[in-house]
Amino acid sequence: MKLVEHFTHGLTSPICLTWELTYACNLSCVHCLSSSGRRDPRELSTEECKAVIDELQRMQVFYVNIGGGEPTVRSDFWELLDYAIAHDVGVKFSTNGVKLDEARAAQLAATDYVDVQISLDGATAEVNDHVRGPGSYATAIRAMENLHEAGFGQFKISVVVTRQNVDQLDDFKAIADRYGAQLRITRLRPSGRGADTWDELHPTQAQQKQLYDWLVARGEDVLTGDSFFHLSAYGQELPGLNLCGAGRVVCLIDPVGDVYACPFAIHDQFLAGNVRGEGGFREVWQHSALFAELRGPQSGGACAKCSHYDACQGGCMAAKFFTGLPLDGPDPECVLGNGERALAALETDSDLQRVVPKPSLDHSHRTKPRERGGPVPLTLSVRRPDRACDSDPLAGEGARLPAGIRVG
Amino acid sequence: MSTTAAGAGPAAVGSAPAGVGPFDADRPYRISGSVSVRPESFGALVYDFRTRRLSFLKTRPLVRVVESLADHPDVHGALAAAEVPAHQRDQYLEALAGLARAGTIQQRRQGDDTT
After folding, report:
1. CA-CA distances (angstroms) from residue B114 to A400, B11, B73?
2. Which of A339, A292, A293 is nearest to A315 (CA)?
């Protein structure tokens, strides 16, 4: 049996485990895969997080990819980071850089087995802030400067490739080189708020070819998180496992302990269990019905007949699911255009219904941040307390209270 | 060849840690201190916390040999104890030389403990 087939059937522990520590985030990126913004009150406590780390150590999960939300806004983030490293679980965490001031950068530079990944979705403030929000470019660049100056070494710059930034790949590389960083580019998914912005942000067919050509020509030192395997159908296989690892070598633990097949599949349909359940994470990983199904034989559907099926394996499960395509159908970004045709058929054929699944969770900020500038619209009371020392908020209101309510 | 390193390149040789000389099967070896070995159905996953490199031991007998290196005064002893057939010895030595180049295993001084 080839090694990759063993991966298809699942491993005793995941290779690549993503752990979103919180849904809280200072930003409201329009493509956020986890629809983050507000903290979930059921978030795992510090002690529960440590118990998960203990379990990962026992399972020999070598490292975790920590994200969110913005993981560093958890007040116990640094404590959990140290705890994981002390328990043989290496940490790579993704951040927008908001907390990476000079002191934190120096602290990280002095810590072994930690990798830092700064998110940046435009090589210019204009392109980046359109997606990630005003000021987010400056925040990210300042964090990079701090890490560079602290002598952290090779951190990573993580870019989600979009229609707007695909022309900037060389510029991203230049930014990475400037700070001694490594560039990582990954695929946009229609997950979370990405479902709302997919049509505007996802690369066009021509841009996908452009991206593929760039990866082949310049991608040697560029990490991709294995996320562009659907592009392998253009010809040359891209480096990596070239398979969907969901539930096989990859999974996600979300902030409340729910375990999903993959970070891009936060939906009830891909929920395998919860680390708070009996048997903890190990039980979910090794025995959940969902993961057993994902590790079983997959029918490639119509794609199985395609001569490129061996290369792309039908593409990304989450991308199909959240665009309303069947899981055994083509990827919405199938390089042969089968996905686009299937989506068009769903739009026009009244017998077929395009049912785009609603997200199961949404922690988006409920309000927009206040626009800066201008006066604050507050009506100030001109009424003064009867006496300077009256602290009772109802002092002087006695006359206006309804009958039967006494004050004092 | 028994290891396939994800993202492995010639750079790994240049950045090899101290104690990695030419592979010498007459000397004692052990798994490097920064390396963790996780058994899997096909063999084992190997992770080097220092280089962040993930690689694979593709057979179970090779895993047994690698794990028992520290208990033997030389590599030959480990191969004999794992009952590796004579006609496969060269293959194993080649694989172990590759692991030594990658820094997965390293020479130890006689009498070193295995940590």
Report:
1. 83, 27, 12
2. A339
Cα dist from A106 to A53, A150, A215, B9, B32, whole Å: 25, 5, 33, 30, 28
Buried b (16+ CB within 10 A) or exposed e, A78-92: eebbebbbeebbbbb
CB-CB under 8 Å, B39 with A62: no
Report pLDDT digits (tens) over B49-77.
Answer: 988 888 899 999 999 999 999 999 999 99
Rg (alpha carbons) of chain B, rounded to whole number: 13
Contacting residues of B for A87, CB less than 8 Å apart? none
Tokens read off for A273: 């269990």
Contacts of A13 in chain B (CB under 8 A): 38
Instruction: Measure CB to CB from residue B36 to each of A9, A60, A115 and give the nearest one.
Output: A60
- Closest by CA to B67, choosing from B84, B80, B54, B82, is B82
Specify which residues A90 forms β-bridges with: A63
* Strands of A190-320, DSSP E: 250-253, 258-260, 271-274
pLDDT in tens, A110-142: 998 899 999 999 999 999 999 999 999 999 999
- Order of strands, edge to edge, in the sheet holding B43-48? B35-40, B43-48, B53-57
Residue B73's nearest CA partner among B100, B107, B32 is B107
- Residue B4: count of CB within 10 angstroms of its CB: 12
Listed in sequence order, the residues at least 6 apart from A310 whose beta carbon sits closer than 8 Å to its beta carbon are none
Amino acid (one-letter) located at A13? S
Spatial CB neighbours of A131, under 8 Å, sequence gap ≥ 6: A29, A30, A31, A121, A122, A160, A162, A164, A201
Measure the CA–CA gap between A216 and A213, rounded to whole angstroms: 5
- Judge whether residue B1 has pLDDT over 50: no
> A30 in the Ramachandran plot: left (φ > 0), alpha (ψ -120 to 50) or beta?
alpha
Selecting from A1, A15, A239 the residue whose C-beta is nearest the C-beta of B54 gives A15
CB contact under 8 A, B45 and A11: yes
Reported ipTM: the value is 0.77
Judged by a CB distance cut-off of 8 A, whether residue A90 touches chain B is yes
pTM of the model: 0.85
Instruction: Tell me which amino acid residue A162 is.
Output: T
A 10 A CB-CB count for A365 gives 14
Q: How far is CA A48 from CA A80, A271, A405, in A?
A: 11, 19, 48
- Closest-approach residue (CA) in chain A for B48: A62
